[in-house]
User: Fold Ca2+-transporting ATPase from Breznakia pachnodae.
Amino acid sequence: MLAHNHSAKEVIEDLKSDEKKGLDSAQVKERLDRDGLNKLKESAKKTNFAKFLDQFKDVMILILLLAAVVSFIVAIMEQHLSGFFEPLLILLIVVLNAVVGVYQENKAEKSLEALMNMTTPQSRVIRDGKEEIIDTQNLVVGDIIRLEAGDFIPADARLISANALKSDESALTGESVPSDKNASVIIEEKEALGDRINMVYSGCTITNGTAVAVVSATGMNTEMGKIANLLDSAIDTKTPLQERLAVLGKYLGIAALIICVVIFVMGIVDGMPIMEIFMTAVSLAVSAIPEGLPVIVTVVLSIGVERMARQNAIVKKLPAVETLGSTSIICSDKTGTLTQNKMTLVKAYYEGAESEAISDHNSDDIKQLLTYAILCSDGSILVEDGKEVSVGDPTETSIVSAGMKNGIFKDEINKEYPRLFELPFDSDRKMMSVINEINGKKIVITKGAFDVMEGRCKGDLKKAEQVVEDMSKEALRVIAVAYKEIDTIPDDIDSDMLENDLTLLGLVGMIDPPREEAKEAIRVCKKAGIKPIMITGDHVVTAEVIARQLGIFNEGDRAITGLELSAMSEEELDQQLEHISVYARVSPEDKIRIVRAWQKKDKIVSMTGDGVNDAPSLKAADIGCAMGITGTDVAKSAADLTLMDDNFATIVEAVKEGRGIYSNIRRVVGFLLGTNIGEIALVFFSMLFWKVSPLLSMQLLWINLVTDSMPAIALGTEAIDGDVMNEKPRPKKEGIFAHGLGVQVVLQGIMFGGLSLIAFHFGYEHGGLTTARTMAFIVLGLSQVHHAFNMRSNKSLFKIGVFTNKTLNKAVALSAGLMLLVIFVPPITEIFGLTQLPIDLYAFSWFLSFVPIIVLEIVKALKLVK
Ligand code: ATP
Assistant:
């Protein structure tokens, strides 16, 4: 049956569902088994084997393998048993390297997938007579769903009822203007998708109104499923830093390659065995070309992303992690983010009378005011196990609760004065209206922000204005309640018609205390050179009072309204921008203007939002933060970050993590490049001075695998230094080698090279080439292991605690263990072309490998590194 071509009732019957009770669990199970999950098919994932093969796409690895094959053939020809070890070991090391590569890739992928799962969309359905929230993928045909503004439509569905419903169907039809929906019409069979106004379609969004609908198609059977071949689930993981590093890696790679060619030519000129020098040059290229940098950065980023998730900040786009660290402006909503969103009604004013504190025996006037306000509210208070549980908008539940104190119960008055129509609340209008039948008359009740309602009410409102001012100064949110009588309910109702010519009934004032943790977070922000700004839909005076309590608003600052902002020219705004810390009664367009104004001053702006209309400003901001609890699907999908607890402090935590992750990436990059330069320096200079290659190919590859890659990843897990929030935000364009990291890397590389050269020279003098190689191997390998500890912090190791990074301890123990195995276990030593040393040479080598720790401790004490 074509759902758009029949009435909702027929569709529900055909699908054996029930408008009020929905499906029962047996039906759901049967349909899930029959139709499968409600999701689009994902493109096939790469298998581990495919990933493994991908690791061999690197040209240098292929050359190395080719070289191994050649050396294998030479060994066969020469019939020399030990000749087989080298190619076999190279093969083994290359395979191990590839395994580590696959491991890293999987780790990054898994944590990103886990994040995707944390943000799986959910839907509100009625099943077994009860309203439930379920994962969207478990929806089945026949389910009765509820939709409201900001929701993603979870499946194709026939509307049963719709209130001022509009849907943005651009994803499906390309039409960018949201289309009006109507549940009661029946559409011709052949009508195009865009004209089927009694249907809503999966993948589109609700931009306005509310609706109840019955699901008519799920998964690949939806219209979206028919046109979308396969859903590409891969997250875009390329961050600007990764791109920059990939470019850097390429340049350094070319440089390393040139050096390798030079080394090769030098070797040939000096008459060294071609095979040996060729193998060394290729192995050096494989070890020293930093082609793995972007992958390691992904791993470090994804470790950070996991850590942020544990603190309730879900990152949706990897580049956001990087940008977070540079955040210099945080624009935050007030209600729920900076305040607790636990509203309590404390005062009420009946037009013309005196304000009253809310108690359990308010005057009859106030009781009437509360009754009207409750009739115009959707929030309710349920009593479960003797406890009161608020369901819905806290602004409304606070009104319902004040009514209960005075013996007015929502269920009872709703029965007595039934609701005939509603125009839902939205942050643009800042009002909500209903039509109820009261004592046989049709009464429109509107509640909303006083300043918007003022122009829509009749009579002199001077006294009410004063009351609003007074309540606002006490940090109260003030809601006005007004009404009018109408004769008939028109067919086409809109706000201008309904919400005009009203009579003000009174005002209610509610308190919403600031969040305790927000105060501390704002203090941290300021110390970290970040300016917090409050942007709210609330009244300017209320907003300013709360901003003062929180420390956002300081003496000399300004609090302005959206109207005042609109009246400002670009130049005026540019001039005033630094001084405005509160924007009240703003519209979504105002938010974009504020973001752009700060961005013009080269600031990185983070902006919070929850509604449908916030999506553009979330996108415009450098970091869009959506609310996890109160946020709409649309806002979440536009944002870079979702705050699972809607809390301002979480943004500040995320910024801290962002800064920490960036400094960890710097550490990892510094460590890897430093060690690579060390390897190149050792080989180059020993070829120059001794005319021999200081390390055999497998020795070089082993060091690269065991002492480079493993500690590098572990460094990425380093705990965040508390000091990161004592510094100013990192400028957007600052390169990764800023603050002397570049120089540091080169000097450290020279130090590794120098120390290994000393070892090589000493070994040569005391025992010949194999002894020299063994000593150089020990010093180069172990000094890198030791150096991993140096790179943990710019503070002394003894200050931060030598063994406080447990992951690094394990990685280093493994690296050192594998190194010791090769150094001390005789058969393995031999296979690697090394030899056993007298105890004093071991001791000397170990001492040399320890030197980086001593040097770096001195450098740190002299504060030469930043
Ligand atoms: P923020 O933007 O900081 O979250 P806010 O909650 O005040 O602040 P909105 O939700 O856009 O922002 O509300 C704007 C104004 O609309 C409120 O100040 C209040 O006057 C009015 N308002 C809020 N909720 C309702 C409601 N349920 N019914 C009627 N009016 C409301």
Summary: The chain has four domains: 1-235, 255-308+655-720+733-861, 318-339+515-646, 346-448+473-500. Confidence is low (pLDDT under 50) at residues 230-236. Residues 333-335, 393, 395-396, 425, 427, 430-432, 447-449, 477, 479, 536-538 surround adenosine-5'-triphosphate (CB under 6 Å). The CA atoms of residues 711 and 811 lie 6 Å apart.
